[in-house]
């Protein structure tokens, strides 16, 4: 009798100590956006001064504590099948907001960087040094954000708008004007569609990201 | 002879009556919690709770003991965009509150020895709470410890007149000072309902 009661107690306590199911948790991706309050506020919006942007054609930047690869390319039939679709979705949103995509050598006003971070606790410990030593940050081998590694398996898509137009005026610094963090890309299902939906959401919740 | 039988009978009845007196009781129950406070964090009734306790009877009508309780409260907030200076975040959120209490209590029984033993009690002790939010694969939590007080009314019901086994039903109000600055909750209060079993010891 005592054993039965003991088992009942343990089962009851275990039943009370519950958590949400993973399948429910990953139904929607988290979309976080940040903007530079100094340059986007009630009195001014730096996006009004922009007209053109540059964006990579078919690769995403990649930073991982597991891999030395620095770019992601589409690999049809694998879980990495979203690269071009994401780039196109970002381009479409930026174009819809009144900006024109140009080539690197056409003096763009801003760059849109896309990078996937793997195994970085980006939400908790990201910090920026405040400058970019290379054109477009990670393109030059320097990744911009300084993040602390974390014993986790998060994969985050980061979209950043980097101010090129005012590089000289900012003491030769590339300031990040806008950032979007989308995650988690690893623990999910219907990955591609969820990422595309999240990219749209990032722009949706950033109405100031617009010319006029 | 008749006098001897009467005296013997009286002694026997007296001993039997003495034997029916209970000295202590253990109980385990299923607890339902209806939160009153900070419904923005959790407003839904929780049925995921358990209570365990021990009481020592003192005299005819009083009992003293201790009780441990554990409940999980949860709520779901569909995808929402939260704006803040300098940004916004869109996510759905699962709010969870893990709530553990450890209390000393005193009881007063209105009709001791009967099959129905209604009582009132007052418990006080320490409450441990963990406020946790889950969003996608991320989570944040905040642990707190506070003081808790719980007035309660209820009844014990013995299945048979001389049984050591019975049922327990109770309802009470609970107030704990546990709040979370991080999640902007001030305290924890609510009604609780308990159904359980009780083992009475002679």
Q: Care to give the gist of this entry?
A:
The complex is a heterodimer of chains A (212) and B (202). By secondary structure, chain A is an alpha/beta fold.
Describe it for me?
The complex is a heterodimer of chains A (212) and B (202). Chain A is an alpha/beta fold and 212 residues long. Chain A is built from five helices and eight strands, in the order ααββββαββαββα. Chain A has helices at residues 2-16, 22-25, 83-96, 122-125, 191-204; strands at residues 30-35, 52-55, 60-64, 71-72, 100-101, 110-118, 155-163, 176-183. In chain A, strands 1, 2, 3, 4, 5, 6, 7 and 8 form an eight-stranded mixed sheet that branches. Chain A is elongated, with a radius of gyration of 21 Å. Chain A starts with a helix and ends in an 8-residue tail after the last helix. With 202 residues, chain B is mostly beta strands. Helices cover 9% and strands 67% of the residues of chain B. Chain B has one helix and eight strands. Chain B has one helix at 2-20, and strands at residues 24-35, 48-58, 62-84, 87-109, 116-135, 138-158, 165-176, 188-201. Chain B has an eight-stranded antiparallel barrel with strand order 1-2-3-4-5-6-7-8. In chain B, β5 (116-135) and β6 form a beta hairpin. The longest helix of chain B has 19 residues, at 2-20. The model of chain B is unreliable at 4-20 (pLDDT under 50). The interface between A and B is medium-sized, with 35 and 29 residues. β1 of chain A pairs antiparallel with β4 (87-109) of chain B.
């Amino acid at each position: 009798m005592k054993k039965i009661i003991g088992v009942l107690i343990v089962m009851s306590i275990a039943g009370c100590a519950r958590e949400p199911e993973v399948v429910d948790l990953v139904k929607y991706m988290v979309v976080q956006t940040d903007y530079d309050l100094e340059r986007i506020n009630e009195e001014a919006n730096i996006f009004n001064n922009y007209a053109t942007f540059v964006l990579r054609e078919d690769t995403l930047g990649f930073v991982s504590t597991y891999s030395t690869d620095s770019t992601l390319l589409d690999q049809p039939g694998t879980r990495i099948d979203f690269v071009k679709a994401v780039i196109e979705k970002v381009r479409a949103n930026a174009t819809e907001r009144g900006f024109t995509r140009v080539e690197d050598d056409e003096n763009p006003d801003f760059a849109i960087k896309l990078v996937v971070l793997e195994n970085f606790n980006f939400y908790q410990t990201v910090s920026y040094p405040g400058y970019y030593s290379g054109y477009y940050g990670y393109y030059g081998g320097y990744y911009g954000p300084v993040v602390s590694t974390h014993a986790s398996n998060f994969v985050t898509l980061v979209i950043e708008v980097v101010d090129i137009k005012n590089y000289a005026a900012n003491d030769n610094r590339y300031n990040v004007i806008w950032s979007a963090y989308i995650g988690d890309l690893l623990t999910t299902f219907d990955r591609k569609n969820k990422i595309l939906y999240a990219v749209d959401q990032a722009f949706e919740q950033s109405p100031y990201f617009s010319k006029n | 002879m008749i006098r001897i039988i009467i005296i013997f009978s009286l002694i026997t009845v007296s001993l039997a009556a003495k034997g029916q007196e209970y000295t202590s009781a253990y109980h385990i129950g299923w607890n339902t919690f209806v939160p009153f406070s900070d419904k923005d964090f959790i407003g839904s009734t929780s049925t995921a709770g358990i209570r365990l306790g021990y009481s020592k009877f003192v005299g005819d009508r009083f009992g003293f003991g201790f009780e441990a309780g554990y409940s999980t409260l949860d709520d779901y907030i569909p995808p929402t965009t939260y704006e803040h200076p300098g940004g916004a975040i869109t996510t759905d959120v699962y709010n969870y509150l893990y709530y553990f209490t450890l209390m000393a209590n005193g009881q007063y029984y209105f009709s001791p020895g009967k099959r129905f033993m209604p009582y009132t009690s007052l418990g006080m002790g320490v409450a441990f709470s963990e406020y946790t939010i889950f969003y996608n694969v991320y989570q944040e939590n905040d642990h707190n410890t506070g003081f808790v007080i719980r007035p309660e009314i209820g009844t014990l019901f013995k299945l048979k007149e001389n049984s050591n086994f019975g049922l327990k039903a109770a309802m009470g109000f609970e107030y704990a000072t546990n709040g979370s600055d991080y999640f902007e909750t001030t305290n924890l209060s609510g009604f609780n309902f308990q159904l359980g079993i009780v083992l009475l010891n002679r």
